[in-house]
Specification:
By secondary structure, the protein is an alpha/beta fold. Helix content is about 30%, strand content about 20%. The chain has three domains: about 180 residues, D-Maltodextrin-Binding Protein, domain 2; about 80 residues, 3-Layer(aba) Sandwich (D-Maltodextrin-Binding Protein, domain 2); about 90 residues, Porphobilinogen deaminase, C-terminal domain (Double Stranded RNA Binding Domain), CATH 3.30.160. The protein contains ten helices and 15 strands. Keywords: Porphyrin biosynthesis, Transferase.
């Protein structure tokens, strides 16, 4: 196990196939951030480039590690475009490449995540490539990042957050409320199953894994009557035409860090840390810190339905958190409000988690692990 416990919620957390991705998304420019901690670094691997018959210069290729799903690649392309927009030296030919790494979570699709090791299965192999120097940064969907990061890595950067809500998708029904008794809803997320069954106990929820396109195809084939997908992923893949309706937070509280992209580097990689400091979106990072502090306090896993969402308006942060039983028979929730600072974000998330843990008692959490 490569996870290593740390006190700060942002220090959480095969066959390999590589490819250099050439098809760019629309370039997006973000202002360079300031005040971010920069850690010391191992430089990117040098590569020799012959520029004439008698002259050779040394060039460094900066490598982005990612999963190979369409959504993961869209996020890697976005990261690449932001790096090129903000750092002119990365616009040079051969300066950037994207390396696809197949993870265990991508290979095993016929079992629930909770039965095969949890969300870390989508990040472990990429983090291993980061630690051994095959890639210089790792691009993750933050909701897939385990509570603790592998030792030797940090996650100092979150890109501006996408919409955090869930989308309801069905070819037969216009809303969750229209689903008849016994209707089958496909979902791989226990927090969705918990919230669905708490409000609509007459529904049947089945395990529904695979990338976004695979789930949409299964829905079209009639495998299920409806499904719920993260709106952020549908937007990034330009698949919003499939949406039947968007669920508000009071209908379906999102997963911790949903809609956020996190970028990790090696702890001592000063060059990568400089680039990531320039891409970091501080309001997103603070919200994610709060949500992950909540997750850490609950010691949450893929076997525990947990949802949490922090928002910032001006200098005020608001947080809503939830934990429940998989069958929806019991759901505990809480809210917090405080200053939008790192210290306050950590405190709010931790205290919210501790409150729900105390309210639930040990039997509550033992039950969710059955």
């Amino acid at each position: 196990d490569i996870r290593h416990p740390r006190s700060h919620p942002n220090n959480f957390p095969v066959s390999h196939h590589s490819d250099t991705m050439q098809n760019a998304m629309v370039s997006t420019r973000v202002p360079l951030a300031s005040g971010n901690r920069v850690v010391t670094a191992r430089a990117a691997r040098p590569q020799r480039l012959a520029v004439s018959a008698s002259v050779a210069v040394e060039r460094k290729t900066f490598t982005i590690g990612t999963r190979g799903s369409p959504l993961a690649l869209a996020q890697a392309y976005l990261t690449r475009d932001l790096l090129k927009s903000n750092f002119p030296e990365l616009n040079e030919e051969g300066a950037l490449e994207i390396k696809i790494i197949k993870t265990t979570g991508d290979k095993i699709l016929n079992q629930p995540l909770a039965d095969i090791g949890g969300k870390g299965l989508f990040t472990k192999e990429i983090d291993e490539a980061l630690l051994d120097g095959r890639v210089d940064i790792a691009v993750h969907s933050m909701k897939d990042v385990p509570t603790y990061l592998p030792e030797g890595t940090v996650l100092p950067c979150n890109l501006p957050r996408e919409d955090t809500r869930d989308a309801f998708i069905s070819a037969k029904y216009k809303s969750l409320a229209e689903l008849p008794e016994g209707a089958v809803v496909g979902s791989a997320a226990l927090r969705r199953q918990c919230q669905l069954l708490a409000k609509f106990p007459h529904l049947k929820v089945v395990n529904f894994r695979g990338n976004v396109q695979t789930r949409l195809r299964k829905l079209e084939e009639g495998v299920v009557d409806a499904t719920l997908l993260a709106l952020a992923g549908l937007k990034r893949l330009d698949l919003t035409e499939h949406i039947t309706t968007i669920l508000e937070e009071d209908e379906m509280l999102p997963a911790v860090a949903q809609g956020a992209i996190g970028i990790a580097c090696r702890t001592e990689d000063e060059a990568s840390a400089k680039y990531l400091a320039g891409l970091n979106h501080e309001p997103t990072r603070l919200a994610v810190v709060c949500e992950r502090s909540f997750l850490m306090a609950l010691d949450g896993s893929c076997r525990t339905p947990i949802a949490g969402h922090a928002t910032i308006e001006g200098d005020i942060m608001r947080f809503a958190g939830l934990v429940g039983r998989v069958d929806g028979s019991r759901v505990l929730s809480t809210t917090r409000e405080g200053p939008a600072t790192e210290e306050s974000a950590i405190k709010m998330g931790r205290e919210a988690g501790e409150q729900l843990k105390a309210e639930g008692g040990p039997d509550f959490f033992d039950w969710t692990d059955q």
